Amino acid sequence: MKEIHIGLVGSGWMGKAHSSALTDAQMLFGPEYGVAVFEIVADSNLEAARSAQEKIGFKRVSGDWHDVVTDPAVDLVDIATPNAFHYVVAKAALENGKNVYCEKPLSISANESRELAEPAEKKGVVNYVGYNNTMNPANAYVRELVQSGALGKIMRFTGTYDQDQLLDESLPITWRHINKLAGCGALGDLGSHLLSISQFIMGDITAVNAMSTLVFPRRPKAPGSAEMADVENEDIMTFMAEYANGAVGTIACSRVATGRKNYLCYEIQGTRGSVRYDLERMGEVQVYFQSDDERDRGFRTVLLNPRHKGYSAFQPAGGISIAYNDMKILEVHELFAALTQGAPYNCNFEFGYKIDRTVAAVLESARKRSWVTVK
Ligand SMILES: NC(=O)c1ccc[n+]([C@@H]2O[C@H](COP(=O)([O-])OP(=O)(O)OC[C@H]3O[C@@H](n4cnc5c(N)ncnc54)[C@H](O)[C@@H]3O)[C@@H](O)[C@H]2O)c1
User: Fold this and answer.
1) CA-based angle 65:67:68, to the nearest 5?
2) Domain extent listing, the chain
């Protein structure tokens, strides 16, 4: 049994989700994959850090992330801050020889992500980006269908990630609206998840042609305030994509999508079959096979079950709900298997860099209103 001493930076939504996933993963998979020791938590909001310390059981607390990356007891720096701080914290953590678990997106630019991916590889430490949708048993199943050839030659990917969380224009400015903190808007926040699934299942996107819209350009500076501030990034992004495998794509995301709560939905069409998936119906994958008798052809619903990778960690029989946090549990299990047993993992910093290169190309294309090659 190996102890992994955790230093958490950022104790908001994701900081808490990571910590509870670490506890659950140990119970589900056993201590042979490592035991999380909650060593130190830092948050620029010291009150939030203290609250996390109390709830999660961290031994020490700080208002400054430097205390985490330089702490000799810390094995794994877990970064769950707003996007802009991923780079500085991860870079300093790597310089101190730490393993790094970083929330998505890896950074706010392709250049910064390259500057993290290269040293992470050289240092040989575990470098993991939290693109948890790649751990969803449904997406792993779709990947198997695509990569085994069961759907024939893949012709098309079409997908959108829509939420209406920011539809209410009286909601105040947050870090997500400010480029120096978030990098970009809906594309980095939501679209990057869809890009991670697309990358995981379909492989590289080679060129994009995008357009974006900002629906609510000003928001209150604080809840209920009459003082307004400028929103700096897109509410909606939509783009065409060309894939290295010859497929074409249409991809979109919106944070002001009326009626849509967590609508990450995509369809992949191949010459021998198609699949459709919607995260709001997390346990159901729609599949269609051209090989079925013509009389019986039609999309059918496959309910996730123990034959789908990852599912049996939670439920012994098919059709029983799994949920968002279960993806995080599978994610930290994979992370711990890498740390304690050298097991392989998909979402390393190189993967995060690839997503950020695509994000950069989409932003450039929207700005120029023309096709841009993904560098
Ligand atoms: N994988 C997912 O499904 C998913 C979901 C939501 C958010 N995220 C990502 O997680 C990250 C955090 O998002 P969140 O929703 O948890 O945000 P949040 O606002 O709930 O929490 C961020 C925390 O970081 C703290 N913080 C800000 N600046 C800091 C600094 N310099 N040093 C230390 N702490 C600092 C804040 O005080 C806050 O407590 C973002 O990068 C976001 O893109 C991923």
Assistant:
1) 70
2) 3-132, 134-322+344-373
**Domain 3-132 matches domain 134-322+344-373 at the CATH topology level:** no
Q: Is there an atom of ligand 1 within 6 Å of 134 CB?
A: no
Q: Which residues pair with 7 in a beta bridge?
A: 40, 77
User: What CATH architecture applies to the domain 3-132?
Assistant: 3-Layer(aba) Sandwich (3.40)
Question: 11: which DSSP letter?
Answer: -
Whether 9 is in the pocket of ligand 1, judged by its Cβ within 6 Å, is: yes
pLDDT tens readout for residues 251-295:
999 999 999 999 999 999 999 999 999 999 999 999 999 999 999
| Atom of ligand 1 at shortest range from CA of 11 | 39
Structure token digits, residue 253: 């995301």
- The pLDDT, as a whole number, for residue 158 is 98
- Domain 134-322+344-373 class, CATH top level: alpha beta
**Mean pLDDT, rounded, of the chain:** 98
Give, for ligand 1, the residue of 8, 14, 108 to mutate: max count of ligand atoms closer than 8 Å to Cβ: 14
H or E, element range at 146? helix 137-147
Nearest CA to ligand 1 atom 30: 44
pLDDT value of position 3: 98
pLDDT of amino acid 1: 76
